[in-house]
Write a structure and sequence with these properties.
Layout lengths: L3 H16 L5 E5 L4 E3 L7 E10 L7 E5 L8 E5 L1 E2 L11 E4 L3 E5 L7 E9 L1
């Protein structure tokens, strides 16, 4: 019983940590490439927590279009440059569905990094 209590406390802490862990997904977008993120349906939203790029010119953008027949695309977030002086602020954005979201890495020499989470209302 004496050895069981520390093991039990460790197991409970692991369970609690995984229960409350965020389910953000991350992806790297190569320079000059446009990547689509998962579609946000009418009862969902997406939080983009981090959007950065290696090089500063031109900046990458997150673009939102209303499905199903598209329409006008709107840039909702520009990438923060990692080596900017003074440092760029890393902004976040919440996008309500329905929406199609795409990420374009604008830099010609580096990569972009984005982390996002899709959830239900």
């Amino acid at each position: 019983m004496k050895n069981f209590l520390p093991l039990f406390a460790f197991a409970v802490s692991i369970f609690i940590g995984t229960t409350f862990a965020d389910d953000f997904k991350s992806m790297v977008v190569a320079s000059g490439i446009t990547a689509d993120l998962p579609r946000i349906h009418g009862d969902q939203f997406m939080v983009i927590r981090n959007f950065t790029q290696d090089d500063g010119s031109p900046r990458g953008v997150v673009t939102v279009t209303k499905p199903p027949n598209g329409g006008t695309s709107i840039n909702v977030l520009a990438a923060a440059v990692l080596d900017a002086s003074p440092p760029d602020v890393i902004n976040s954005v919440v996008i309500a569905g329905p929406a199609d979201v795409s990420v374009t890495c604008g830099t010609t020499t580096g990569n972009c990094f984005i982390s996002f989470r899709k959830d239900s209302n």
